[in-house]
Amino acid sequence: RRSWAEPWKIKMVEPLTVTTREERQKALEEAGYNTFLLRSEDVYIDLLTDSGTSAMSDRQWAGMMLGDEAYAGSRNFYHLETAIQTYYGYKYVVPTHQGRGAENLLSQAAIRLGDHVPGNMYFTTTRFHQEHAGATFHDVIIDEAHDTASLHPFKGNIDLDKLQRLIDQVGADKIPYVCLAVTVNMAGGQPVSMANARAVRELTARYGIKIYLDATRAVENALFIQEREEGYSDKSLAEILREFCSYSDGATMSGKKDHLVNIGGWLATNDRELFEEARNLVVVYEGLHTYGGMAGRDMEAMAIGIEESVNVDYMRSRIGQVRYLGDLLDQWGIPFMKPVGGHAIFLDARAFYPQLEQDQFPAQTLAAELYLDSGIRAMERGIVSAGRDQVTGDHHRPKLELTRLTIPRRVYTQAHMDVVAESLKAVYEARESTRGLRMVYEPKYLRFFQARFERL
Ligand code: F0G
């Protein structure tokens, strides 16, 4: 393998804080053992999320100076609209402040009370907005996605039989759209194949059911298709992305990931009626339809980021860095979700702490232990993130109990990855004497963000 060195060099640096174990213990207690409640100042290497944490390029920063901060009709909006139309291929664009703003608009515009929305595993905010608009969510991802050891190359794929069964059961008229996420964050950043997208299109077209992508990491998905799917090794990421989107009717987007910016999002669609409805709603929730909660400079940076994101050298180095960390962990037998996905390593907290019940929050515990050891911040993606069943009130109990080490784009070096791996080794060696947590405060919505815990 040729090495995957970054196709850029560093022009500006930001110092990191190193803390003592005593300081971290205090900070963690103050944060209720929830890494979302830590102050960033108390964090050394921040792998909480790849969302809004990218380093922008010099071209993007230059674009920030070209911000047209007009309330209406900003020049930067038209640049952004053109970039989305060119690279994603949709006709109509509604800008939003970030991904969940777009999810809100789509859910409100498309869902009626009593509807059903199938998706390839849930995402927290996406499912929230679907349920909030009156729908029931159904996970129709292939079974392999729930198995941390399965080496299926496209673990994000939709299971066509599951989708067919749902259609037979509830009726096509109760399914406003299929929500197809690429890559699948909660499954470990796992990709969806082009063949699967095409097959889902063929199946749903027979019933007049639409497909909306969660395109948040669709460019990362394109690299997996280029690497793993027959017939695509000679196609550019841009070509793959365009074809993939062509099997859908529109998309919601969190620009904070693939677009290499710190804020922003959009909803795009080919459906004129839905567009009109969403453009009506955007002024209530986000801002005028030519800024949707973003400053002109934010839209400019995003338009430039879209172009940069389809550069294959960049994408190889980005995903190559995630794989590098995975290889180190593998050498030491640390359990994580295989194969390595696009944006993160997902540690298998059940395998890490077999002595803990899921109600003792193994993934939350692992995130806390890692922070204590070295100041590295990870995120729970297990029972806390899954929330409660709206009907029974009991915890959703996801098969996957994961702790996510999310790699920001263009931010950390290979040496940082070495430090992360070494710290995890220390936490792994101390695993047998680790105790779990008890939840002492639970917010009503998206509880993982603000829940508080105590050590058992
Ligand atoms: N869809 C996916 C697949 C996401 O990963 C996210 C955000 C969103 C939608 C919502 O977008 O944050 O811009 O409102 N994921 C972040 C994460 C928060 O850390 O995984 P947003």
Supply the key terms.
456 residues; alpha/beta; 5-stranded mixed beta sheet; 3-stranded antiparallel beta sheet; 16 helices; 12 strands; globular; binds ligand F0G
Alpha carbon gap, first and last residue: 47 Å
> Which strand order does the major sheet show?
1-7-6-5-4
Q: Roughly what fraction of the amino acids lie in strands?
A: 5-15%
Average predicted local confidence, pLDDT: 97
Model regions low in confidence, pLDDT < 50 over at least 5 residues:
none
Number of helices: 16
Give me the strand/helix succession.
HHHEHEHEHEHEHHEEHHHEHHEHEHEE
Shape field: globular
Protein name: Tyrosine phenol-lyase
Enzyme class: lyase
Family: Belongs to the beta-eliminating lyase family.
EC number: 4.1.99.2
Can you walk me through this structure?
The protein has helices spanning 21-30, 58-64, 75-88, 99-110, 124-132, 160-170, 194-205, 218-228, 237-246, 272-285, 296-309, 312-331, 349-352, 362-374, 383-386, 414-429; strands at residues 92-96, 116-119, 136-139, 177-181, 210-214, 250-254, 265-269, 344-348, 379-381, 402-406, 437-441, 452-455. Strands 1-7-6-5-4 form a 5-stranded mixed β-sheet, with helices on both faces. A 3-stranded antiparallel β-sheet has the order 8-10-9. Strands 2-3 form a two-stranded parallel sheet. The chain is built from 16 helices and 12 strands. It has 456 residues and is an alpha/beta fold.
